[in-house]
Amino acid sequence: MDGSEEEIFLNDEEVTDIFQQTAYRNSTRLASLNGVWSMELIIKTDVGGAKVKAWYVLNLLCDPMIQHGCGIQDDDNSTIGSACDMLHNNEICIREGNSTTYDFTCGNMQTDISDWSDAVMLYHLGYQVDVPGYHQYEDTGRFVGHFSLTFPQMNVTEYNQTHEEPEGRRYVDIYTTRYVNSVYSNKIYMPQECNVFNDKNFEQLGGQEALNWTIHYQRYPPEYDVYEPYLDTCDNGDANPIMPLFTFLFSRSTKPPFDEIIDFDLKYKLFVAPSDSGGMEFLKGLGLPIDGPYCFNGELKGYTFDFSFNSIEGNDYVQFEHACIEGEPCLSLAYSKCSLCSDIEVRESSGGTTIQVGILIWLILSITFIGSFFICSIVNNIKNRKRIRLLEIELNTVGDPSQNVSNTYDLIANENDVVGEGNPTEPLISLVNADEVSLNTNASHPLSFRPKGPEMKNDPSEGDFTAATSVENSLL
Prior knowledge:
Layout: E1 9-10, E2 13-14, H1 27-31, E3 35-45, E4 51-62, E5 91-96, E6 103-108, E7 119-131, E8 134-139, E9 144-150, E10 153-154, H2 156-160, E11 169-176, E12 178-180, H3 202-206, H4 208-217, E13 246-253, E14 260-266, E15 269-272, H5 278-285, E16 290-296, E17 299-306, E18 309-310, E19 318-321, E20 324-325, E21 329-331, H6 333-338, E22 343-344, E23 346-347, E24 353-355, H7 359-394, E25 408-412, E26 428-432, E27 465-466, E28 471-472
Helix pairs in contact: 5-7
């Protein structure tokens, strides 16, 4: 095959113009989207030893339920499926009636349960913050899923009106991502090993509620920032985290051999709600691609890592691969057992980007960071002393040992404290009276830090696999 126009066939359909977009979604191109997609962000400072790392790894597999996929012809019978507007209106073709009827209609991706999709997705995410005196490591532990996706076709001519084509290439097909409410949607579970989410926020940050909000927002223009109304204020309610939305661009060389490649465009911010925001504020002050705080659960405690990436333009901070990245999570148990791929490419990590902070700026930010903790500590201690004093006054026990009171009040240390272990805590006030009524307070110390978590393990018995120098997938 020499690349001549007469020998170009797509989906068994001859194309006289090799740059003409086909009227049908191309199954070969859609199949090429399956596999592992890895995003890694590593940023270090030139002084001070500060480092932040975040990752988001996707496994895409063909959905076996695609067997039930359907399409509706337009009145002119020109294009199958276009009567259901997946791209703009969150519509998807669904079957009505029972298992023996063939009545099709356009359902809603969010409110109706679709019995098919193009692919299912599982994700693994996490982040690590290392600042002198502060370490935080949180991740999902295992892959989370399944999420059902469809890939509606975009019009190349319309896309080119607002975007430039790569030099020496022309776009021949474009697909974007749409999430679907499916039979898998109520089976999205938080892994037991997960510590980046908890039982109170998992649904919002990475579960079914995040899926529903993604379906709601995916109709908006890609440039729309869904978190901006909630930055530095809770007047507009809580931010609603969403899943990543990709655009896949297939382009063909304008010169022989007319090779075809995939480019991708992603505008995505990974939303997290750390238990301690001090490290995030410090890193944000260094100019890292971290935004916040956003309102989440009524408090300004949400932050985002900016993973926006365009493979044509590149990104100084983010490495994006249609493969595994060495040292990062790689394959979910579902992919390792069910995929037909026998060899997964593992690419070397870029090692991250070092930003020029400068000694003076580092010292200023370090002093500010440490000083904020001491201020919080002092304020917390003053408040606790006031509460103790007011409590003593209210109970009429201050400085009058001659009072004949039937109740006895003792200020004792926290019985759970062990000398030399753990962080210091505020005293435990135990109020014991004749009726055996007690009041306890145990305020944690403001300078307590989360220890750095364990490294990833390559233990196949645990289900998910971390990328090493090579990955072999034995199908069971």
